[in-house]
Amino acid sequence: MSPIRVDFYLLSNSEPQAPWLVACRLLEKAYKRSHRVFVYCDHQQDAELIDELLWTYKDDSFVPHNIQGEGPEPPPPIQIGYGSEPRGFNDILLNMASTIPPYFSRFRRIMHVVAADESAKELSRCHYREYRANQCELFTHPID
Fold it and tell me: Is 5 left (phi over 0), alpha (psi -120 to 50) or beta?
């Protein structure tokens, strides 16, 4: 089995909504490439924020998604959750939370969007070290 790929997207834009908008772009790209993505958030408010942004961030975009536990079964290719483990998702994890979920190793790829502030950068360094200790394949991508 190949190592888990972990991508850190390092933002230079310090606007509070920038990480969420970059997350929407990543989700749209993943959807267009037929991936199934679980978006892990810290809490319900963040889940609802990205849910709403996926409907509105771009006029000509459609990314089928829902919040875990809502909507149709089987779920659409993008599922947003917080607190509980996803069912049926093991392709890509987009981690928008401050912690790494205990089930991260079931995914083939993990993406982190890192805000431009120092506390977010320090948290991502901790995550980087934890993934490295788990023999993950690590990549960083500066985003302007």
Answer: beta
Cβ atoms 128, 98 nearer than 8 A: no
3-state secondary structure of 98: coil
Which of 39, 48, 49 lies closest to 78, judged by CA?
Answer: 39
Please give the chain's pLDDT, 144 residues, in tens: 689 999 999 999 999 999 999 999 999 999 999 999 999 999 999 999 999 999 988 888 889 999 998 877 888 999 999 988 998 899 999 999 999 999 999 999 999 999 999 999 999 999 999 999 999 999 999 998
CA distance 122 to 98: 11
Instruction: Tell me the helices (H) and strands (E) count for the chain, helix number first.
Output: 3, 7
Q: What is the distance of C-alpha 20 from the center of its chain?
A: 9
Q: Which residues contact 30 (CB under 8 A, 6 or more apart)?
A: 37, 78, 92, 94
Beta-strand pair 5-11/137-143: parallel
What is the pTM assigned to this prediction?
0.95
